[in-house]
Amino acid sequence: MISEQELMNAKEHTAILLKQYWHEQVVNTPQWWFLLISLILPWIVWFFLVDRNRLLPITFVGLFFMFVSSFLDQLGNSLNYWRYSYMLTPLEKEELIPTNLALIPVVYMFLYQYLKKWKSYIIGSLCIALFNSYIGGIVFTWFGIYHLLEWKYIFSVPIYFVLALLAKYIVDTFQRLHQTAGPKE
Question: Which helix (H) or strand (E) holds 148?
Answer without folding.
Answer: strand 146-148
